[in-house]
Amino acid sequence: MLIRRVLSRLKRMVVGTKTAPNQPPTIVDAVPAPSASQAVVESPGNLSVGEYWTRHNVTLHHAFASREESLDYFWWRCDQYFSYIDLMPVSGCDGQVVLDFGCGPGHDLVGFGTYSKPARLYGYELSSSSLREARARLALHGIDAELIQGDADRPTLPLATGSVDFIHSSGVLHHVPDIDACLQELRRILKQDGRMQVMVYNQDSIWYHLYVAYQWRLVWGKDAALPLKDAFARSTDGEDCPIANVYAPAEFIQICARNGFEATYRGAAVSMHEAGLAPLRFPAIQDRRMPVESRKFLLGLEFDSRGLPLHNGKYAGIDACFELRKK
């Protein structure tokens, strides 16, 4: 029933509507909670980063009843972003000290605790409600992890310098107030031969150049007066999300370099929402109001045998994934 509802929603979005729906689809909406009765909490404006993410998380505050349900949701959610689990694996960390920076309600901690055997497993998170949910979900699996509550304005971790082998951060660094401070702190705790894997929002994506540039702004008339990056920020995790940055891969690599990392772009994961929107590129290209950069991006797309979009040989999805090592 759940996947049928998702596919039905995507079909309606592809067909399109000339007016904005009451709740335009966001990344959270594209991956709904496992329970149909679990509602998204509406947010007042002007929330801090910590307050906002106390109200929102990737499981929409769902309480899992069993290990089987929890793992089924883990894999279902991975499958909503084609190639994500290959680009951001949770296996291969046996015997390592692992940190999930921005662990939310423990989604990827469950992955590491199930598919790796880390020597120590840490989760760092701003939201007290997400940490409570993470503890419950980890207990369900019998996974031992140390959870740390942080502060968005002071990204200081109570971990020794050079003590962590592997840092995972998925969908977090594009939400922080000071990405340089975060990267410098993560570099401090990472071992000299350690590595990081990071996912941030991708400017070279269908989401940015088709969903936001065309459907969000021109078809629905939402945020049409805003710069494209500002409109993007309102389209992803809710219109009141305090910070939602987006990066071209080369731009993010430069940010990493100035903070002492050598970053390699692994590629991007394509959301099923983006895959369903691909046919809209034709009317978008024909619309004279489209930004030139977005029109050129859409004209340059290629597609693989599954019908998934490629840009410069990489999937043109919203989740840009990188490996970082110390210089």
UniProtKB/TrEMBL annotation:
InterPro entries assigned to the protein according to its UniProt record, in alphabetical order: Methyltransf_11 (IPR013216), SAM-dependent_MTases_sf (IPR029063)
CDD domains: AdoMet_MTases
GO molecular function, one term: S-adenosylmethionine-dependent methyltransferase activity
Methyltransferase type domain boundaries: 99-196
Domain of life: Bacteria
Name of a matching Pfam family: Methyltransf_11
Protein name: Methyltransferase type 11 domain-containing protein
Lineage: Bacteria, Pseudomonadati, Pseudomonadota, Betaproteobacteria, Burkholderiales
